[in-house]
Amino acid sequence: MNDEFDVQLDSLLDNLARLIPEQIAFIPRSELEFILSDFVISGGRRLRLDMEQWPTPEEQEALRRFSNSWWPFFVAPDFPNVTEDQIRTLALATTCFHLYTALVDQIVDKANTCSAELILALSPILEHWFQLSAVLFDRHSSYWIYARQIQARLSRAMRDERLRQPTTTLTLEAYLESCRGRVAFTCVNAIGLATLEGQIEHIPHLCDFWTRVSLSAVIHDDICDWMEDYCDKRYSYLHLQLLASPPFRAEVLAGTLPDITELGIALFLSDLAETLYGVADTEAQRAYSDIIGYGYQRHREIGRRALDRVESRRMALMERKMRLFLTIDL
Prior knowledge:
Blueprint: H1 3-18, H2 21-24, H3 29-41, H4 57-66, H5 71-74, H6 84-109, H7 115-121, H8 123-136, H9 142-163, H10 172-182, H11 188-197, H12 203-224, H13 226-231, H14 237-243, H15 248-253, H16 260-269, H17 272-291, H18 297-327
Helix pairs in contact: 3-4, 3-6, 6-8, 6-9, 6-11, 9-10, 9-11, 10-12, 11-12, 12-17, 12-18, 17-18
């Protein structure tokens, strides 16, 4: 392992020891959601239980959009029989699960000869998630069945993504199924809350809702990060569709990769990004309409936010393209 990772791991393990219900019992909920989000965003390096500086409104929104740690607090009114202590413990457990998946994803993205060793070094995070969850759920609980299914689905999605080659054929549906696997961790909160509420029969519907809502975030990331992903040999639907079309197909078959600038121009001139945003909009519409019948008011608000976010991203893309077109000297 490298020195930088060793330092990060030391900080992370030290912080995990403090990430227990007793340590956060007296922290106001409005602060705790940001503390946990910052812990994930920093890769486990920071756990500032005493906030020195309150986040600005812009920072608050960024923290909330990034981290899965906020959702147990926001959707809690949809589960009135779940206690505050249970919500807080679930938030801690979810934070560990999210952090573990995020760090493993980073390691897989930068795959090297010691990546397996690095992933094994992160096992204490997963163990901490297990210990926190065990406070809430006995070993026969449905929570564990669903949680392990999520782990397996997430692992398959990360593996399949990393195994893609420039010559890989990837259909839109296969790409979307991979995306659904990548966002599977977002269902952990819903599974936990529904189990504690005694509404186990709602879990499949809640998981479907969170998967559809989260799909737009993955699609947006793939669009925004296409250059970095291409350099890291992490090929998304965007890359593989372009590489399979003229004139790039001949280069790929000859064993060379197209210049990133040429690929960027082709992506700009195509409608691939618009197509994916259209899919995200359809998924968000379905999530919003399906959740209405369950009386989950906070979930309905999340669904509405997802719809608005997809539309604003699609409009921003169209405006950016229009501005670039106006600068082209025909």
